[in-house]
Amino acid sequence: MKVALGVDVIRFPLTGIGRYAYELAKGLGQSEEVERLFFLSGRRLGRSFPSEPGVSPTTALSSLKRFVGRRFVEHRCVLDIYRSINDVLRVRALMNAEGAVYHGPNYYLPAYDGPSVATFHDLSVLDCPEFHPPERVAYMRSELPVALERADVLLTISEHARQAVLAYSGFSPERVLAVPLAASSEFKPRTAKECAEVLVRFGLGFGRYVLYAGTVEPRKNLGRLLDAYEILPARVKNHFPLVVAGYRGWCSDEVHVRLQQAQSEGWAFYLGFVSASDLPVLYSGARIFAFPSLYEGFGLPLLEAMASGVPVVCSDSTSLPEVGGGYPLMCAPDDVDQLSHLLVRAIEDEPWRERVIPSGIAHAGSFSWERTVTGTLKAYRAAMERK
């Protein structure tokens, strides 16, 4: 088959959906089933594999969206006009990939006549709009129905997300496929010696901290994680500080004020964004991984932690029980007392740790990007059958 993959979301350093699209691009390029692979970047169609320092130049549309920013609503008419023009130019570019399956890995689809597949990672903009900036909510609420009209098949990244998308789209079950993600091979157990250079640079001790990795934003529930940490016994809080690694996201000022106070008291550290080379080492050196998120389409950090040989404490919300496979310690995302209790147990319960670490490694290993590519190709075949 011929495939055209949208790659606007692939920007380095890779995070989230960008990582997903990058791994798909790499896997599809290695598949014997894909005769020709095209990449749609902005309004240009090419054959070159996305690579650093940037995949896709910033498109004019994304530049306009940044300019509009929080004044989205009053500039909505301008943005709508531009999107319409941009859509026409994308379709014109795709004429050079006639007969290809087009895959939009980040919800959106151009008005392409050929078979089309879109990945809906989650529906948090609809289910929990308070977790997103208003301009993102408005934009996606206008674009998701358009994608539904154009899609032959939808992909999700978990069964939880699939059930939500089925209910929202009204599609028949065979038109919505759940294809899970995977942790990359860089996430693996390491010895103290192997972690030493990175941990010394961050001022951390091997096995002497609790890690959270991800964007600092409302749906990640870091406020309650800080609440749970504040009530930890002194023997735990003082010897196993909380380390937060990730971009400073939307609506996170209050959390950062609390992190600064906690850092001054010696029981938390904010590292900001951590490079792709340092992050796997940071995982490997942690005593446990904490992830009390309120909403996830998948929850890849759980797999990354387990693959690194690090026990997990997380919430039992949305897709996390599915991804965790029964190995993390879980509680309701709003139960601060229970979260605090589970943090202590995960740190101090050696028999439990000895059981769960090898099981978690094996569970994480059952996910692979090869499996993701195989499931994605199944979606492409289903889309082709509908044309």
TrEMBL record:
Pfam family, one: Glyco_transf_4
InterPro entries to which the protein is assigned, alphabetical: Glyco_trans_1, Glyco_trans_4-like_N
Residue ranges annotated for the Glycosyltransferase subfamily 4-like N-terminal domain, each copy included: 16-180
Protein name: Glycosyltransferase family 1 protein
Record field: transmembrane: none
Keywords: Transferase
Domain Glycosyl transferase family: start-end pairs: 208-359
Keyword Isomerase annotated: no
